[in-house]
Amino acid sequence: MKTKLYVLLTILSIAFSVNKTFAQGCVAVRQMGGNMICSSNSYNLPKGELAFGGTYRYFHSFRHYVGTEEQEYRQTTQGGFDYAGNEKGNAVNIYSHALDINFSYGITDRFQVNLAIPYVHNERSQVLRTKTGGKVIIDGKEVDQVLEGIRYSVYAQGLGDIRFSGNYWVFDPAKTTKGNLLLGVGVKLNTGSHDEKDMGLFMNTKSSHGNLVYDSLVTMDQAIQPGDGGIGFSLELQGFRQLYKGVYGFANGYYLFNPKESNGTFKSAPKAGLEGYNIYACPDQYFARVGITGSILKDQSLTLSAAYRIEGIPAYDVFGGQVAYRRPGLVMAAEPGASFRKGKTSISLLVPINFYRNRVQSAADIADQNLQNSQIDDDAEKVHVQGDAAFADYSININYTYRFGKVKKS
User: Fold this and answer.
1) Element (H, E) at 33
2) By C-alpha distance, which of 359, 362, 364, 356 is closest to 388?
């Protein structure tokens, strides 16, 4: 019995503690915090016991996709030339660090409540192309002006959107050790800023050669904002089942409903006929995961896992209006993981490796496409509008949990 309980605890540590650490990039799926692992002598969190922990996530997005096609040229071209005539890429790079502080408390042996407080630090590196004076030699020819790409970074950091949730075990944990199902509901607050500003770099077109100037009143891109500006609610489902001796299967899914249409932050100036689509949306987001896990040591302290996961932002929300701007998309990943437990402490590591990326057509894309095509009579000349987004190759997710309470003997 003791061996089974340790394996179950490790499953929950892997499946539940880091179950919503998203890794996207320009598709602004945010860290939402996870549920805590349970007691050291049972897989649930017993009545009156408290668990505390932190979840850290890092990713670097730089691969641009339109649909499922990668824009590989963005890595090497369209960023201008340096003074030696070398062509430079203009890919947007996002470096994201997020830390969740998590608390869970057992109201009863089957019902627990959770609090996740996120903090984020995001950087967005981009290119501004400028014309510079002087003469240089490119391909044996003297050129008066060179198109030079100036890469610079902007930052957004601070408190993210706090989340409260409650979970309930469908079957009595005291009577069920080979498998169980957990249902959860949650509320996401709009505590994170959605209109952080940083020093924007622009061209002063009044200059003959173009001078670089800074403007401190620039709102950062939605992809790096700490919050989305909306109050949402979530539904989730998590479960596990013994497959063979110390091998268990697990699955969990999550959907965040964000009914608010937009957060009032302008992406750009409005375009005639497309008013409203220049304001950032408060988008829904989703996540699902299924995998297996098993212990590799006699004392059950170290467990390895493998999972398939899918996560993303839909083009349309389930509730609320759709006239706003978002970068919808999804990724699929293969996720190896490991968890180590000793006493009241647990540490887990998950590294989802993305093998499928898709920046889907948004409502704003379709509205723009329909507007343009309404003015074109020849079907052969009609256009397809679909924006791009940058995705990461992988993410790193680390979770630490400590349980407060007396450790009972099995």
Assistant:
1) none
2) 359
Contact (Cβ atoms closer than 8 angstroms) between residue 127 and residue 149? yes
CB 220 within 8 A of CB 26: no
Q: What is the pLDDT of residues 214-234, one digit of tens each?
A: 555 678 899 999 999 999 999
- Place 325 in a pLDDT band, splitting at 50, 70 and 90: very high
Output the six-digit token pair for 213: 């100037």
| Amino acid identity at 36 | M
Segments making up each domain of the chain, as ranges = 2-404
The token pair that represents 270 in the structure block: 């409005």
Q: Could you tell me which CATH number the domain at 2-404 has?
A: 2.40.128.130
d(CA 186, CA 317): 17
- What tokens appear for 340 in the block? 């180590």
> What is the DSSP secondary structure assignment for residue 182, as one 8-state letter?
E
Per the CB < 8 A criterion, the answer to whether 273 and 334 are in contact is no
Which token pair is 274?
A: 């497309």
Nearest to residue 391, comparing CAs of 306, 315, 333, 305? 333
